[in-house]
Amino acid sequence: MFQHLQPAPADPILGLMARFREDPRPDRIDLGVGVFRDADGRTPIMRAVRSAEQLRFAEEDSKVYQGMAGDPAFNVAIGELALGPLAATLADRVGVVQTPGGTAALRVAADLIHTARPGARIWLADPSWDNHAAVVRAAGLQVERYPYLDPSRTGLRAEAMLAALRAVPAGDAVLLQASCHNPSGVDIPAAVWAEVAETAVRGGFLPIIDMAYQGLGDGLDEDAAGLRMLAARVPELLLALSCSKNFGLYRERTGALAVLTETGPQTRATLSVLLQGVRNAYSMPPAHGAALVARILTRPALRLDWADELAGMRAHIGHMRDGLAEQLAARGLDLAYLRHQRGMFSFLNVPVAAIARLREEQGIYLLDSGRINLAGLSDVHLDRVASALQPLLAV
Ligand code: LMR
After folding, report:
1. Who lines ligand 1 at CB under 6 A?
2. pTM above 0.85, yes or no
3. What percentage of the chain has pLDDT greater than the value 70?
4. Of the residues 111, 172, 210, 305, which is catalytic?
5. Pocket test for ligand 1, best of 30, 37, 43, 131 (most atoms within 8 A of CB)
6. What is the C-alpha separation between 220 and 241, in angstroms, rounded?
7. Using CA atoms, how far apart are residues 122 and 208, in angstroms rounded to an integer?
8. Which terminus of the chain is more exposed, N or C, with fewer CB under 10 A?
9. Closest alpha carbon to 249 in 282, 297, 284, 298
10. Can you tell me the distance from the alpha carbon of 84 to that of 359, in angstroms, rounded to the nearest whole number?
């Protein structure tokens, strides 16, 4: 069976994470995989998550199966967090199912599209998260690209993007990131979101919004503003959600897929097809992470504490963006764009060979694409990282 198989290439993000873990140098710095780190390089468990775990330990009275859609309380709460007041306005047209992380949400979304319309293509930003294309191709969808970044990789090509979206045929799907664009940190301004919504309504493509960083850009509501603008106007939309970063639940694989269609009966029919796909793939999602998020979002004291800690994480990312730009400015380099971008990631325009040297000689890990995770940085590292980057950015 397996004799002809050759080793698959390492995943560009998780492969680098594994290399970092094997690196014995105690002073190595991981600015690769998108996780939040404190000054000691640890990714702490959020306070509200700890409290919710204690509550769950005391309250849980059975390990019996949940349904294919997961935890109903989680589904309501996460839908409200994402959609805000629209969750009530659109209630009959929206259905939410819990998934094993945002990746599985994207995968079952792609499976659903493939079932509904086997020839549909999916349009991804150029560039997009490294795993987007592979996930949707695995569901049998063909990938196309729309322009997103300007040649400096620091700003949006809004006009080129909108022109490409206007040419997307009705019945194709377009994936957009809600905020904190991975890998570039370049987000879509409100005026451009309005045009995207208009284009989707006129052109008839299906928007898929990937929201993996709600609360890590400008705020919980601010980061969802583009999504909400679209959801209020378009007839149909899919929304993939992740709790990995904003609840720090990475390994608990906690996410959701929300489905918006034109009518209540259509949403219920679509969900039934979606859940059939879920049953065929993994039967039902794991319970733990969603049980914690449901408790955090529905108990006011826990919710306040979570939102407060999240605001601190957001402020830390902003502080690191300012700090790195300042340190580089002090070394004669203008990377002011770092201050204006949002979320964990930005691009540094450093050649791939230099990124390898940075890793091997200095123990500083970035993705080969030049993506840096600013949430992995801390004050104690700024000087060393800026000094190591200076000669590479100056060429
Ligand atoms: C990242 O982009 O680094 C994260 O979303 C982790 C992952 O799964 O790729």
Report:
1. 13, 33-34, 129, 131, 182
2. yes
3. 100
4. 210
5. 131
6. 13
7. 9
8. N
9. 297
10. 42
Q: Which residue type occupies 346? A: S
Q: Residue of the nearest CA to atom 2 in ligand 1?
A: 34
- Residue 40 clears pLDDT 80, i.e. is over it: no
356-381 pLDDT, tens digit per residue, is 999 999 999 999 999 999 999 999 99
Residue closest to 240 by CA, chosen among 372, 90, 109 = 109
Q: DSSP assignment, residue 9?
A: P
Specify the pLDDT at position 38: 82
* Active site (annotated) includes residue 193: no
Domain borders along the chain are 12-45+313-390, 65-298
Bridge partner residues of 365 (DSSP): 30
What six digits make up the tokens of 62?
Answer: 């059975």
Instruction: Give per-residue pLDDT as tens, 123-180.
Output: 999 999 999 999 999 999 999 999 999 999 999 999 999 999 999 999 999 999 999 9
CA-wise closest residue to 143 among 127, 125, 123: 123
- In the reported structure, the alpha carbon of residue 275 is separated from the centroid of ligand 1 by a whole-number distance in angstroms of 26
Residues 237-261, mean pLDDT to the nearest whole number: 98
The question of whether 27 is a catalytic residue gets the answer: no
Look at residue 27 in the predicted model and tell me its pLDDT.
93
**pLDDT digits 0-9 by tens, 188-203:** 999 999 999 999 999 9
Question: Integer distance in angstroms from the first to the last C-alpha of the chain?
Answer: 50
How far apart are alpha carbons 289 and 282 in whole angstroms? Answer: 16
Q: pLDDT of 213-230, one tens digit each?
A: 999 999 999 999 999 999
Domain 12-45+313-390: give its CATH architecture. Alpha-Beta Complex (3.90)
CA 32 to centroid of ligand 1, rounded, Å: 9
What is 65-298's CATH number, 3.40.50.10490, 1.10.3720.10, 3.40.640.10, 3.40.50.800? 3.40.640.10
b/e for 152-185, b at 16 or more Cβ within 10 A? ebbebbbeebbebbeebeeebbbbbbbbbbbbbb
Q: With contact defined as beta carbons under 8 Å apart, do 208 and 121 qualify?
A: no
Consecutive H or E run containing 339: helix 337-340
- CA 214-108-210 angle, to 5 degrees, is 20
